[in-house]
Design a protein that fits this description.
The chain has about 850 residues and is of the alpha+beta class. It contains 23 helices and 37 strands. The longest helix is centred in the middle third of the chain and has 21 residues. The structure holds zinc ion. The site of zinc ion has 3 residues, from loops.
Length: about 850
């Protein structure tokens, strides 16, 4: 009987949302008239939003049509995704405001500058940046953007006029074009004529890697602070062009959930975010609540999500006088799905998102002056509390990494200066040309503090994302926050890299230090050209120039190219990779001589990366991106589903990144072992550790956190378990610089990003522990006391020789989110120097 009633209920619901009955009136507010001159979404798409999943091309076409038809909208293209899709932005406001837009922007920006106390905010428009579906397979946002843009372009009457007169809307319909395109393809190609809400249908089970991420499988909602991806660069530029007062970020969550809007859990707000930010977020929430009440939709707030990591779209604005707001809609994934709340249809999810987009604008309009004043006060207070002095970061051995951090700061409009002259602080020496000065007293001082600070005390022990991201650590740079401003030289308006050239030709040999960030890119070009190159296992010197472990030697004689060709080629390599190469005219160097056996011959590397179902797309994507974008190195993506048929002999290195489950079978282990014994280097990451141990590639001893749940109630159980995880924190390890895994590092300490609780015991033979956690390893972030007690003396790196090959393990992610420049070289050392270990 019960199942019969459920079946009836399901049928009833299906009919209620039968797609032939779907009409724009399902979404749009009652009692609004629309200008018939403005194209409706179905005029361009050929269907009502919600009937199918709109692809990025279709959304683009519609937005162009709207901009063409409506004087309220202008459209600009701000760049392209990795797959070449335009990153468009619509500016939506009244026709009058459009006539005067640059002046409005100038006045709005003045709120963030000194002298703002005299400005009259009662006459200023509020600026709202609305963005949709940064996770491409959370498609209700981008599909709701079709309706929101239509409404804003076509609605008529005093209400919309009042809104558009008082609001500048920066409208970003698709935050993640490449991901949305992938997802739309999946949902549409698996849609049946008779919509089937069975959650087990293929329609709801997207193929790996899914549409959540961008082209290189990055979660772009973590890149607002590091700004490493083209999509983020466009967004951040818009942000700093306007300093919007509210920024919204429309997502989806699990299908059984209802609708969430921020604020999140109060105790998990970053301490640098002002309390008033959260109070205003809460007040804005009352508008969402009222609008969702009106359409009968369930919702919740102040649970599950937080406002801690500033790299998220809804948190990034909170450190800049703006208010970021996260929306999460229970996902239908495809077109309709059975859930705890009955049949959840795609149109229903779109309607909630659309409703929240409008309630945001309603709140902005009603709270306009309050929110503008909040922004003004934020910057005034920041200026008042600013300390004197400056931060300085740099690396005399690796100017390149320092430059790449400076790039991030410039993207955020942070004021930076050259370093005037050499200076030392707390044992670290900074040099002009490879160091930068960041004044503490500046417009973005709070943002800078959030990027540079180290934090080890927390109000809560749970984090939605990472708990630490200190940039000087992630770039492995020397750093001080105790410099005086008199060390500052000229202010840097446009950041340029000093040109690198190869001044002299040699008939004898060339030398390249391994410290610069791009050195692996240069070496890869050299080896692929067929030139012989060697690596120095020991330091040496020529005259007064010191060459460190890992220096690359390229002899000028007995090569396939003559010395003239070699010179021309190395000059190109040097310019292209920005890495200095110098000429040597004698082998009689201090320390080892250039003909010594302490120089080991290197081979071109052919690297494969295992990908496919089960592999964590983020971790694999970070590696793909590193090779392809940073080092111009080819990497073969080997799909696991073909593994048994794959010819492994083509590869010198195979990388097994972290996975969500076990991805390789017993036969696969045998196949890999044979390949290793024949000379391959197998590199495993994170939870590959247990698989490598179980299949006897490595012999590992793990340390366990044996903490027991005492005095923990049923209600507290999740928090208790969560507190024993490591969501992402930064730890210090000691390096043996003579070991090839550490070649190119500037000193014997390194910061590592760790988001695993795998604690591997050190080997009893000390030189087999070239990287080892220090006695007080916590540099920044949250770790439970119990876990912190286990970490000292354990190792994040293991190497084992097997036959003619090597097995290497990293328990920590050396490539995290493309902003951990400081540890990328560990992977490159494993690739190029694995045979020397
Ligand atoms: Zn999301």
């Amino acid at each position: 009987m019960r199942s019969f009633i459920i079946a009836l209920f399901l049928l009833f619901n299906l009919n209620l949302f039968a797609q032939e009955d779907l009409d724009l009136s399902y979404y749009l507010p009652q009692d609004v008239t629309y200008n018939p001159e403005i194209p409706k979404p179905q005029d361009i798409l050929g269907y009502i939003p919600g009937e199918r999943h709109a692809s990025h091309d279709q959304i683009l076409n519609y937005m162009r049509a709207l901009a063409e038809a409506s004087p309220r909208i202008t459209l600009e293209n701000r760049g392209r995704t990795f797959e070449g899709r335009p990153l468009i932005l619509l500016t939506i406001t009244s026709e009058d405001n459009h006539q005067n837009l640059e002046e409005i922007r100038r006045q709005h920006l003045a709120l963030t500058e000194p002298g703002s106390e005299d400005l009259d905010t009662s006459e200023m428009p509020v600026v709202v940046n609305q963005g949709f579906s940064i996770h491409g397979n959370e498609a209700s946002g981008a599909n709701a953007a079709l309706l929101a843009a239509y409404h804003l372009a076509a609605a008529e009457g005093p209400e919309i006029n009042e809104l558009l007169n008082n609001t500048i809307i920066l409208f970003d319909p698709v935050f993640n074009p490449d991901g949305l395109q992938r997802f739309a393809y999946w949902a549409n190609t698996n849609k049946s004529e008779n919509i089937n809400p069975d959650p087990q249908d293929r329609e709801y089970d997207e193929v790996w890697p899914g549409g959540r991420t961008n082209h290189y499988w990055f979660d772009m909602n973590r890149d607002w602070l590091p700004v490493q991806l083209p999509e983020s660069r466009a967004r951040i530029e818009t942000f700093h062009k306007w300093y919007p007062n509210i920024l919204t970020d429309h997502h989806e969550m699990g299908s059984n959930s209802s609708f969430f809007f921020q604020p999140g859990i109060p105790s998990r707000t970053h301490p640098l975010t002002p309390d008033l930010n959260q109070e205003l977020t809460k007040e804005i929430g009352t508008y969402h609540a009222a609008a969702l009440d009106d359409i009968g939709s369930l919702y919740y707030s102040e649970e599950n999500y937080d406002d801690f990591y500033y790299g998220k779209g809804s948190t990034f604005p909170d450190i800049q006088g703006s208010i970021g707001i996260l929306f999460e809609q229970g996902s239908s994934r495809g077109h309709a799905q059975e859930t705890d709340n009955g049949i959840l249809t795609f149109p229903f999810t779109i309607r909630n998102q659309f409703t929240a987009a409008l309630s945001t604008l309603e709140a902005a309009k009603e709270m306009r002056v309050k929110i503008l004043n909040y922004q003004r006060n934020f910057y005034q207070n920041a200026r008042k509390e600013a300390e004197k002095g400056a931060y300085v970061f740099g690396s005399s051995k690796d100017a390149s990494s320092a430059y790449h951090l400076a790039e991030i700061l410039k993207r955020h409009k942070v004021e930076i200066h050259e370093l005037q002259e050499e200076f030392s602080k707390n044992g670290e020496t900074f040099n002009p040309g490879s160091s930068y000065v960041v004044p503490k007293k500046q417009k973005h001082q709070r943002l800078v503090e959030a990027m540079f600070e180290r934090r080890t005390e927390f109000q809560d022990s749970l984090f939605y994302d990472i708990s630490a991201w200190s940039f000087p650590l992630s770039f492995n740079l020397d750093f001080t926050d105790e410099a005086k401003m008199n060390v500052a030289g000229e202010k840097i308006d446009s950041l340029t890299r000093p040109a690198v050239d190869l001044p002299e030709k040699s008939e004898y040999a060339y030398l390249m230090q391994w410290h610069p960030y791009e050195a692996p890119k240069a070496l890869n070009s050299i080896l692929n050209k067929g030139l012989r190159a060697k690596v120095a296992m020991q330091p040496f010197n020529t005259g007064n120039k010191k060459f460190d472990y890992g220096t690359i030697l390229i002899p000028a004689q007995n090569q396939k190219m003559d010395s003239e060709e070699i010179y021309d080629f190395l000059r190109e390599v040097s310019k292209d990779s920005q890495v200095e190469i110098s000429a040597a005219d004698t082998g009689l160097t201090g320390g080892v001589n250039l003909g010594s056996n302490q120089f080991r011959a290197l081979e071109p590397q052919k690297v494969a990366l295992l990908v496919g179902e089960g592999i964590t797309p983020y971790d694999a994507g970070e590696i793909w991106h590193l090779f392809d974008q940073r080092y111009d190195m080819k990497i073969t993506k080997l799909d696991l589903s073909n593994f048994s048929r794959t010819d492994l002999s083509r590869y010198t290195d195979i990388i097994l990144s972290n996975s969500w489950g076990s991805v390789l079978e017993k036969e696969d282990a045998e196949k890999l072992k044979e390949w290793v014994r024949n000379g391959g280097t197998l590199i495993g990451y994170k939870n590959a550790a247990t698989w490598l141990d179980k299949n006897e590639f490595l012999d590992l001893e793990f340390k366990d956190n044996k903490i027991q749940a005492k005095n923990i109630t049923f209600e507290q159980r999740r928090d208790f378990r969560g507190a024993q995880g490591i969501g992402g924190a930064i730890f210090e390890a000691k390096q043996d610089r003579s070991h090839p895994i550490n070649f190119g590092y500037k000193d014997d300490k390194i910061a590592l990003f760790r988001d695993t609780t795998l604690f591997v015991e050190a080997d009893s033979t000390s030189y087999k522990n070239p990287i080892r956690y220090t006695e007080e390893p916590l540099l920044s972030g949250y770790i439970s006391e119990e876990n912190l007690a286990l970490l000292p003396g354990t190792v994040p790196f293991k190497h084992n020789s097997m036959g003619r090959g090597n097995v290497i393990l990293f328990t920590d992610n050396t490539n995290f989110r493309a902003f951990w420049y400081g540890t990328n070289k560990l992977l490159m050392n494993a690739i190029f120097f694995g045979d020397e270990m």
